[in-house]
Amino acid sequence: MLASSVERSKPTPYPSKARSALVRRTILVVLVLAALALVTVSFRSPTAGALHDLQGAGASALRPFQIAATRVAAPFRDAYDYLDSLARAKAQNAELKRVNAELRRDVLISAARAAKYPELLRLLHFEQGPSFPHGYRVVNASVITFPAGPFAHRLTIDAGSSSGIRVDSPVVSGDGLVGLVTDVSPETATVMLLTDPQSAVAARDLRHGVRGVIQVGPGGTLVLNDVPKQQVVQAGDVIVTDGTRNPRYPDLYPYGIPIGRVAAVGATDTATFLQVQVQPFVSFGSLDAVGVLVPKHRR
Are residues 59 and 156 in the same domain? Predict the structure, then answer.
C-alpha cells in the first residue's frame, strides 16, 4: 500500500534518431566552416596577424611537451633503427654471400675452361695444318677420367658412338698421337694410350724413311722396334705414323700423325736391331682435351 501511494517520476524520453542525426550534421558543418575560416585567415596573413600570434603562443606553450616527448621517444626510435639496420645488414650479408659463391663458381669454371684453351687451340691448329690426315674429320672431346694408377694406361672421354666414334678410332691431341679407342658407349669412349703394353703403332722416321713399330720398352719408355741394324736413325729425328702400306690390309692409323722425337740410338754387337728410344710429343699425364679421328666416309 505504501509503495503504491508514492508517485513515480516520468522516464526521460530518448532522443529520436532524426534529431541525433541533425545534431551531428550541424556540428560537422560548424567544424568545416571554422576550418575554412582559419585556412582563409592564415593565407591572407601569411607572416603576421592574430591567428599567427595565437599559433606562436600555442607552439611556445607546447614546446616543452614536444621536447619531452622527443626525448622519451628517442631511445625507442634508436632501438627501432638499430634493429632495422641489423635486419638489413643480415639480409645484405646473406645476399653478398650468395653473390660471392656464384662469382667463385664462375671463376672456377672460367679457370677450367681457360686451362683447356691452349690445348684446344693446338688441336685446332693440327686440324687445319698440313699433317692432318686426308679423309677424316675430328670429334673434339674432354677427358673425364684419367688412368687410375701407374700401371693403368687408359682414359675416358665425353664423346661416344652418338658422335660417330667407333672402336679403333685414332685419338690425337694438338701435340700428336694419343692412342686408340678400345670401347664405346653412346656418350663416352675408352682410349688406350700409346704407353699401354698392348699398343703397337706402325711408324717411320721422317728424315731417313726408316720404318718400325712404336711400342713400350723397358721402364715404360717408347721405343721404335724392328729397325734393322744397318739402317740410319739419328737423335732428333721426328717419328710419325706410317699409315697403310698395303690397301688390302689398311692400318688403323692414317699416315703422318706426329708421335715423338728420337731421344737416343744404341746398338750391341750381338743385336739384330737398333735400340731406338722415342720421346713422345704428348704429355699423357696432363691431357684435358683430345680429338678423335673419324672417317668422313665409312669404310
Answer: no
Residue 295 lies in a domain: no
Residue 261's CATH number: 2.40.10.350
pTM of the model: 0.61
The CA distances from residue 126 to 22, 28, 175, in Å, are 101, 95, 8
Q: Which residue has the cell 700401371?
A: 151
Regarding whether 124 and 32 lie in a shared domain, the answer is yes
Does residue 3 belong to any structural domain of this protein? no
CA nearest 291: which of 169, 204, 115, 145? 169
Q: Give the residue from 180, 218, 234, 224 showing the smallest Cα distance to 203.
A: 224
Q: How confident is the model over 51-76, as pLDDT tens digits?
A: 566 666 666 766 776 777 777 777 87
Q: How far apart are CA 14 and CA 206, in angstroms?
A: 125
Non-local CB neighbours of 288 within 8 Å, separated by 6+ positions: 115, 116, 119, 142, 143
Q: Report pLDDT digits (tens) over 239-260.
A: 999 988 777 778 899 999 999 9
The SS3 assignment for 121 reads helix
- Across-strand partners of 155? 191
Neighbours of 158 (CB within 10 A): 14
